[in-house]
Design a protein that fits this description.
The chain has a 7-stranded parallel beta barrel with strand order 1-2-3-4-5-6-9, surrounded by 5 helices. A two-stranded antiparallel sheet has the order 7-8. The two termini are 27 Å apart. By secondary structure, the protein is of the alpha/beta class. The protein has a single domain, classed as TIM Barrel. 38% of the residues lie in helices and 17% in strands.
């Protein structure tokens, strides 16, 4: 089992002092909105902006990027499979060359919209099914990494702990940040519990905070079978489309800060 090591923001062996709080957002479309982007941007330190393939459009992308930049929240691209009806959560089988172009297309759109808003894209985090598939597939992960590196080798790859995506990004020399999920349960192999299972999601903000304190404070994930996996994460995600997203993000931020952790943007975390 891979054990993810952390960046320089540690104090003593295995002790984290900082954390990054990220959320997926800009996931509306046209007049329809999903989640409270404005509210979440007051809490989080990094925003993953949908690129139009599972949700989002140029208007929503631009508005969220503009507000994020004004609040000092770092901006990331959030590319997915081309699957608006399935919200990017359905698996697709594409060739590796298609994957490279799929990622390049969406990252390019993100960079263009950000430039129009006088903002910068500093990280990338794949969304939904493509992210889950890449966690266990080194070849798929390598295709994603090739696309990113061809465009900008300084963009941070925000990838799940214990994942092939994190490993491939590190091998390619991309800056990386290891991510855990505040509102998701974990399988014994470190993969997320599939969403179709009743125990996949953690809905209670207090339970999410306990989960985060264990991952950041103790350096371990407790899996659904009661086992423990050693990890060292730099960023924690709250899914912006959940009904308790705002309350969960606020509770986690305050709880980790009360425990002595300092919130940082992703560029600050790896500097």
């Amino acid at each position: 089992m891979l054990i993810v090591r952390n960046s320089p923001n540690t104090e003593g062996e295995g002790k984290m002092t900082d954390f990054n709080l990220n959320a997926d957002m800009a996931e509306g479309y046209g007049p329809w909105r999903m989640g409270d982007d404005d509210g979440l941007l007051q809490i989080i330190s990094s925003a993953n902006i949908a690129c139009g393939f599972h949700a989002g459009d140029y208007q929503i992308m631009g508005a969220v990027m503009k507000l994020a930049d004004s609040l000092g929240v770092s901006i990331g691209a959030h590319p997915s499979f081309y699957d608006l009806h399935g919200f990017g959560r359905r698996q697709m089988r594409l060739s590796y060359s298609e994957i490279e172009r799929l990622i390049a297309y969406q990252l390019g759109a993100s960079l263009g919209i950000a430039a129009a808003e006088h903002a910068c894209v500093t990280h990338i985090k794949p969304h939904g099914a493509i992210n889950n598939m890449a966690c266990a597939d080194a070849s798929l992960s390598a295709a994603i990494v090739r696309a990113v590196k061809a465009i900008d080798s300084d963009i941070i790859m925000l990838a799940p702990v214990l994942s092939e995506l994190l490993t491939e990004a590190e091998k390619a020399g991309l800056p990386v940040a290891a991510e855990v999920f505040a509102d998701r349960a974990y399988m014994p192999d470190g993969q997320l519990v599939p969403r179709g299972r009743p125990d996949a999601m953690i809905h209670d903000p207090e339970a999410s905070l306990t989960h985060c304190l264990r991952m950041f404070g103790d350096g371990e994930i407790q899996t659904v079978d009661g086992g423990r996996l050693r990890v060292m994460a730099q960023s924690v995600c709250v899914h912006g489309d959940g009904p308790a997203a705002l309350a969960t993000a606020q509770h986690i931020k305050h709880g980790l800060q009360a425990a002595g952790f300092q919130i940082k943007t992703l560029p600050q975390m790896i500097s």
